[in-house]
Here is the input.
Amino acid sequence: MADWDIKKLRILRTLHELGTVTATAEALHLTPSAVSQQLAGLAKALGVPLLEAHGRRVRLTGAAHLVLRHADVVFAQLERADAELLGHLRGEAGRVRIGAFSTAIPALVVPAVQELRRTHPGLAVAVREAEAEAAYELLAEGSVDLALSLAAHAPTPRDPKFSRLSLLADPLDVALPAGHPLTAEPGLRLADLAGEPWIFGSSGPWSQITTAACENAGFVPERAHAAADWNAIWAMVAAGMGVALVPRMARPGGVGAPVRGAGGGPGVVLRVLHADQPRRHVVAAARRGSEGAPGLSRVLAALQQAAAARAGARTAPADGDAPPDGPPTVQSS
Here is the structure.
């Protein structure tokens, strides 16, 4: 029987994910020569070539891809074994590391942690902020145990390395300057804002989400200003510099809170797009096989509870109730 060295298989899988020996070495805290030596040793032990020259780089052979298909099953089974062993040794205690994008932390992670402190005080949770795509890189390399991300920027459900759980369909509302004529427009649609100057990031997930939502409504948004920080976006909208799509999870002060301008005066009105409201889908992911660990399953359950509470929340006043020149309000369904 061939010698299936777990450490070397992990190096091969990391090379497959990252594409270069240099990136693999950096991710695994090895030297490039050590990576090459380990993979050469694995190829010798298995009796098949795993790498072939491709210009100045290397690529995986067909035999390497075959090995990886079996390695994914092996790693998932090892994660299950770790989960069962952890349950045997620690029961309800332990530590779970979460990587989550910024708006998910106050909206979902913090309520979940607060609930766990009450119900499972022996379970420690460590939180690390990470962009949606970066959270999966941290999960794959073992730096976090659970990743909160957006479905549009996550590996597919068929990826054998991860198990995914849908948490929330987060509605996107539109932020308008107080006094804008469309703040009182009945039945406001996203297409009604086609001629407005828009505020969204120059790159990254939020830029893609805004652009895709507007294109689905039949227009390409004109980006007047680029910003990724929500405080900057609120300030520019309040100053009348443009409009922006806002995930409901990013509302300052929570659902239903007024959004003030600079100095605390009237600033922003949030309108719900009842007819064609876009949404972003929040998912949680774990390395396949690890989701059965007691601590991880408790955290997932708490996140589901927080997501359900948020999805069921309703705010007032109803859409269209506030006059356009009145105090800034968050208008919702």
Observations:
- Residues 212 and 319 are 24 Å apart (CA to CA).
- The chain has a mean pLDDT of 83.
